[in-house]
Amino acid sequence: MSSPISKKRRTLLDSLLVKIHQRTSHASRISRLTDSIDTLVRKLYGDAGELHALDIGCGDMSISAGLSRRRPGLLFDAIDIHDLPSHLQGNPIWNRYKKFDGVNIPFEDRVFSFGLMCDVLHHVPEAMRSHLLQEALRACDILIIKDHFENGWFSRHMLRAMDFVGNYGYGISVPKRYFTESSLRELAKQTDGILDVKERRIDLYSHFGVMGKFFNPEWQFLGVIQKGVSIGRIS
Q: Total structural domains in the chain?
């Protein structure tokens, strides 16, 4: 997730990329993803009153904050690997934020109804991914994950270009490769988890008009990882 707390000093290129990202896609992307995740949470939990969730790699917290506004009984804690700048300290949105080391989640077992990992896992170094997933499934009953699937050379490099515009200016690394469905299922399996893909096409870029046709919605997915058992498919 793009993050205002990830890079304290920016070059001219960084500032330009952040400006392009904010003006062209950020708000639309956040709105669409919040809609999809909110729909999934409601299908999973119905009208259950209070839910306690963890936003892992929270970025600017725009999605978890938006979900909380839509559902007053949903309380989020948030973690990321960056120090909180002084100008954000005391801001109510960041009151439940904690810095962590990127793999060891600083909460007790099964504290959270669900964890949320939105466009985070592909940025985690490969050697650390299994540990982070294991930690997420320790602290959370289930993990809701939004990420990318590549399906060849073209998709991989288009996703890298999108990541460059959306993340490089914030100081977030651009991966060389992305998950396939089989590689993510295998990663989940390493933690005794099962991946259920709930939404296989998320159209985030149709507002780009003709240019949006280069960004295949099938590269974007929303799923759930849970320990040991499948929770079934949601159409």
A: 1
